[in-house]
From TrEMBL:
Lineage: Bacteria, Pseudomonadati, Pseudomonadota, Gammaproteobacteria, Thiotrichales
One Gene Ontology term from the biological process aspect of the record: tricarboxylic acid cycle
Classification via InterPro entries: 2oxoglutarate_DH_E1, KGD_C_sf, ODO-1/KGD_C, THDP-binding, Transketolase-like_Pyr-bd
Obligatory cofactor(s): thiamine diphosphate
Secretion signal, residue range per the UniProt entry: none
Annotated GO MF terms: oxoglutarate dehydrogenase (succinyl-transferring) activity; thiamine pyrophosphate binding
The protein, known as: oxoglutarate dehydrogenase (succinyl-transferring)
Highest taxon in the source lineage: Bacteria
GO cellular component, one term: oxoglutarate dehydrogenase complex
All residue ranges annotated as the Transketolase-like pyrimidine-binding domain in the record: 2-68
EC number: 1.2.4.2
Keyword annotations from UniProtKB, A to Z: Oxidoreductase, Thiamine pyrophosphate
Domain 2-oxoglutarate dehydrogenase E1 component/KDG C-terminal, first and last residues per copy: 73-209
Length: 213
């Protein structure tokens, strides 16, 4: 099942597919909840679903703005030489020995963080994409953590309000203390005014990357 999900400033009715509700249903590896961030990941996710010897419900969150995002691209080799990655480690030229802050995220917010990190020349923060939230990729996350020996604080970054999105699920799944960065709790899925959306977006990016505004 494909569901549009991503915060683009279009208001409460066009931002959230209620990711948190599907994650609440996840237990004992009963369903898959994925948020592919590249064309190749999307391809391999569907291919994996068809080639497996068993059938398990697949929920896919698909940010609409990534259809035209300049950074959301895949090389030919990504389609032919790889499979679906439940976790995507840092892909930039970041020295793991220098990383002090590790950001875990999923979906469109990854590209917002990457653009801001490049703009401010930050080289001590790594950004990790969780492409499959359920079943939780425990081994893959542990392998990523092992590459960064000097991390002081792992952080979960999300676009959604704190009482929504993947925060509660990831906090309970990850076997280490996790800091939260995102919008504050809200009764509404998203702000109704674009200016408020823009301010919230700038605030969470600045907090995640520790940028002085």
């Amino acid at each position: 099942m494909f569901l549009p999900h991503g915060y683009d400033g279009q208001g409460p009715e066009h931002s959230s597919a209620r990711l948190e509700r599907y994650l609440r249903l996840c237990a004992e590896d009963n369903i898959q909840v994925c948020v592919p961030s590249t064309p190749a990941q999307f391809f391999h996710l569907l291919r994996r679903q068809m080639l497996r010897a068993y059938r398990k419900p697949l929920i896919v969150m698909t940010p609409k703005s990534l259809l035209r995002h300049k950074l959301c691209v895949s090389h030919f080799e990504d389609f032919t030489e790889r499979g679906f990655q439940t976790v995507i480690d840092e892909t930039g030229e970041i020295d793991p020995e220098k990383v002090e802050r590790l950001l875990f995220c999923t979906g469109k917010v990854y590209f917002d963080l990457i653009e801001a990190r490049i703009e401010h020349g930050i080289d001590n923060i790594a950004i990790i994409r969780i492409e499959q939230l359920s079943p939780y990729p425990k081994v893959a996350v542990a392998e990523v953590l092992g590459r960064y020996p000097h991390v002081k604080q792992p952080v979960w970054v999300q676009e959604e309000p704190q009482n929504q999105g993947g925060w509660w699920y990831m906090r309970d799944s990850m076997e280490f203390k996790l800091e939260y960065v995102g919008r504050p709790p809200s009764a509404s899925p998203a702000a109704g005014y674009f200016e408020i959306h823009r301010q919230q977006r700038q605030t969470l990016i600045a907090e995640a990357l520790q940028i002085n505004q």
